[in-house]
Write the C-alpha cells for this entry.
Amino acid sequence: MDKKIMELPVVKKIAEARDLAWVNPKLKPFADVSLEVAMADIEDAEKRLARFAPFIVKCFPETADRGGLIESALTPVPKMQAYVNRVYGSALPGRLLLKQDSHLAIAGSVKARGGIYEVLKHTEDLALEAGLITMEDDYSVLASDECRTFFSQYTIQVGSTGNLGLSIGIASAAVGYKVIVHMSADARQWKKDMLRSHGVKVVEYESDYSEAVKNGRRQSDADPKSYFIDDENSKNLFMGYAVAAKRLRTQLTELDVTVDGDHPLFVYIPCGVGGAPGGVTFGLKELWGDNVHCFFAEPVQAPCMLLGMATGLHNDISVQDVGLTGLTHADGLAVGRPSGFVGKVMEPLLSGEFTLEDKRLYEYMRNLLETEDIFLEPSACAAFEGPVRLLQYEETKAYIKEKGLWDKMDDAVHIAWATGGRLVPEDIREEYKNTYLDQ
Ligand SMILES: *Cc1c(COP(=O)(O)O)cnc(C)c1O
C-alpha cells in the first residue's frame, strides 16, 4: 500500500486492530446529496415483491400470515437497554428497539431481503422473456411443474461467507434452479450442511470471501445459462434491502414513534461487504433524510467498509493491505474488501462506524438472551456496539453536539438491526453460549 495512505492517522488507528468510533467527514445534508439510485428504484422493487407474494406463499407457507411478504418484527428491548446502561455504563437515553431480521422467514437473516429479491427479479426476467407470465398474472403459476422444468435448465451461482448462500440457495432451489454456492473459508460447517440438504452444490475455498466471489463469477460467466449474483456490485440486491425502510416506517407508526427534527432516529447495522447495511441505510435516508443517523459496525480485524470509506479508496484497498488478518468469529462480517458500489453511495449518507472486538459479540449475545430471551448469531450482535458506546466515544459525542441533538436524546429512538440467527442449530447455539474469548 501507498506509504501516504499508511500514514493517515485514521489508517494507523484501524491498523492497530483496537475498537474505535469513526465519524464520516463526508456526510452531507441530505438536500445536497445526489445519487445514482433513487426512491423510484425502491418502489419498483417493492412492487415486484408484491407481484411475487402469491408465489412466495405457495413455495414458503411460513410466510402466509404476512401474505407472502418476508418481513420481521420491530420490538422494544427495554431490559437489554437497562442492562447495558447498568453494566457497561452506556447511559443511553431514549428507546432501544430491535429489528429482528434474525427471524426473517426462509433464510433466517437479513439476506432474505436482498438475496431472495434478486432471485425473484431474475426469475421474472426469464419468465417474461419466455412468455410464461405477464406482469398482470398471478405469479403463483410459476410454482407449477411446467415452470419448474423450465427453470431447471438454468443455474444460479453466488459467492458467500454463509448467509447469502443460504438465502440464494434455498430460494433458488424452491424456484427449481440448479444452484452452486461458492463458500469462503470462514463459512460455518452447519451452513454448508444445511445447503447440501436442499440439493445445493457447495464449493469450498480455503481462501477468503473475495476469492470465492472471483471464482464463482468466473465459472458462471463461462456458462451462458448461469446467472451470477454479485454481492460486490449488485444494484438488485441493494434495492431488495432498501425496501426494508418503507416497511419500517409503518412499524414505527404502530409503536407511536415519530421521526423528525426533534425526534432523531439512530440505526446501527453490522457490515460485511456492505450491501445489506448500505441498502437499508439508503432506504432510511430517502425516507427521513437528516433526521436518521446510520452507523455500521465491523470487527476490528475486518473493518473493510470503514477502511474503504476513510481512505476514499473503497474496493481498491483491503484490510490485509494494512496488516489486518480479516479473520473474525463474525462469519457474516468476515470480508476483507468492501463493495465499491456501496461505499460510493454511502459516502454522503453514512454517519459513521464502530469497530468491535470479537469477545463482545458473545457478551452481547448472552446479554440479549438473558434479558429478552432472544437469540442472535454472533455477527448480528455487532449491532449493539453502537447503542452501548455511542455516548462513550468522544467522536460520537461530538457528532451529537455538532448536529444539535444533545438536548433531544431523551426523545431519540435507537434501532439495533439484528441481522441473523434463527437458523442456527441447537448444538451450535450451545457452543456459542459457552464461547468466552480473550479479545
Ligand atoms: C451478510 C450479513 C451481514 C452484512 O451484510 P453485507 O451485505 O455483507 O454487508 C450482517 N450480518 C449477518 C448475520 C450477515 O449474514
